[in-house]
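Dear Dr. K.,

Following up on our conversation at the group meeting, I've run the structure prediction for tRNA N(3)-cytidine methyltransferase from Gouania willdenowi. I'm pasting the input sequence below exactly as I used it, so you can double-check it against your construct before we proceed with anything downstream. Let me know if the numbering doesn't match what you have in your notebook.
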Amino acid sequence: MALLASENNKDVELSDPDQTKANRGTHPNCELQNSCSDHAVVSAFKQMKLEREAQKNWDLFYKRNTTNFFKDRHWTTREFEELHACRKSEKEQLVLLEAGCGVGNCLFPLLENDLNIFVYACDFSPRAVEFVKQNPVYCAERCCAFQCDLTTDDLRDNVPESSVDVVTLIFVLSAIHPDKMKQVLENISKVLKPGGIILFRDYGLHDHAMLRFKPGNKLGNNFYVRQDGTRSYFFSKEFLAELFEETGFQSVINEYVLRETVNKKEGLSVPRVFLQSKFTKLGHSQSS
Ligand SMILES: C[S@@+](CC[C@H](N)C(=O)[O-])C[C@H]1O[C@@H](n2cnc3c(N)ncnc32)[C@H](O)[C@@H]1O
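The predicted structure tokens came back this morning:
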């Protein structure tokens, strides 16, 4: 199944790469560069309210949608071979942090796929974390889910410093105000081993979801608010690379992934643009 859910706020990726036409490379919508940039932005007062209420808005999102909104992300092991390959032997346990785990659509396929991983999983929304803990696959020997605001709460309160091999950041950074993204990466960096890797996928610049925002939804450059108060940033390769490099990471791969999501029933086909990237944490000697 690959479709864009049709309700006004459901502009998330639900595509199964097996059933979408995939492509990679340069940005497809260069001619649309300015089409979304002319709208007046939402007032400073409303923007502050959205920032203050960000957690509440995500928690209400999960109250409304429970575990039924996002599809399980079975593609992660196919797209990110590091999820198996970065340990020296099969016997070695891989320690993962799933930052912004939602209700576990990435986490549980991973746990089912690989018996020898331990996953820390955190999210802003207490309700989402509760859904994770209630999942039948959840067990304390293999995962540890906790609530946290990645922009303010020190991850080391729940995850030992420099202990994590791989961090997954899947459609999470886009939900965070661009002024706070660097804090999130600094926070993650504290628990990641030197040489550890962040696997990233998120909305790319001029994705369909960005192009269909109406005037009145714009918060700033490439940053929009949905009707339910949750926000979404749309990343360019350059912006993302600079953000990570300023925070002590090195780019391994950073490319647009183009998908065509098809709803066969309704005969709809929608071009999507995602940014898929890998960054490694430089060791002390490398960063100085
Ligand atoms: C689009 S959902 C993606 C969820 C999950 N990664 C997935 O792939 O299904 C974005 C998630 O980011 C979480 N989030 C937003 N801001 C956050 C913050 N400051 N700290 C932690 N999580 C946050 C939201 O609660 C939400 O679950």
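Two things stood out to me. Confidence is low (pLDDT under 50) at residues 1-21, 28-37. The CA atoms of residues 59 and 125 lie 5 Å apart.

Best regards,
J.T.
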